[in-house]
C-alpha cells in the first residue's frame, strides 16, 4: 500500500481528509504540552514526573484516596511502579506512611511539611495551558469541556482510562448522560459544563 494511503491519524495525507484524524493529532500535542510542563517543573524540584503528580494528588485528595492501590488506578500504573515512586518520596522526607486504623494491613500516605512546600512550588505547573484556555470565550470553553468530557467518558467505558471521581460513575448521579443531569448530593440539576471529573463528594455507584 502506498505510504500516503495508510489510514493513520499521523499520516499528513489522511489528516487532510478527516477531521477525526486532525483532532487525534491535536490531542497528541496536548499530551506533549503536559509532558513538557510536568518535566520542567519536576526537574527544577529534583523529582520525577510521577513523583510530582503523586505529591499534588496527595495534597488535594481525601485520606481513603491516599493509598498505593488507589494511586495505581488513578495514574493507570502498576502498584509496583507507584510503590517505587512512594519509596523515593519517603526517602526524600516528603511523605510518610500512616497506618489505617480500620485496616491495620493498609496505610495512608500523608505529606510532610517538605512535601507540602514542594506542592506549593509546583501546583501551577500547567499554568501556561490554563492561560491559553482563559483566552477562549465562555461558549468555546463550554463546548470544549462537553466534547472532551464525552470523549474521556467513552475511553473510560472502553477500559482505557480510569475516572474514579466523575459524575457518571457516582451513586448520586441521575440523568440520561446526554442532556439531563441531576446530582442527588447537591439536590440540583447540573448543566453539561457543571459535570465533574474530580468531585470530592463522589461515591462509586
Ligand atoms: S456528588 Fe459530585 S460526582 Fe456525584 S453526581 Fe454530584 S457533582 Fe457529580
From TrEMBL:
Keywords: DNA-binding, Transcription, Transcription regulation. The keyword Transcription applies. Residues 20-153 form the HTH marR-type domain. Gene3D superfamilies: Winged helix-like DNA-binding domain superfamily/Winged helix DNA-binding domain. InterPro entries: HTH_MarR-typ (IPR000835), WH-like_DNA-bd_sf (IPR036388), WH_DNA-bd_sf (IPR036390). SMART domains: HTH_MARR. It holds the Pfam family MarR_2. PROSITE patterns: HTH_MARR_2 (PS50995). Transmembrane segments: none annotated. This is MarR family winged helix-turn-helix transcriptional regulator. It comes from Agaribacillus aureus. The lineage of its organism: Bacteria, Pseudomonadati, Bacteroidota, Cytophagia, Cytophagales.
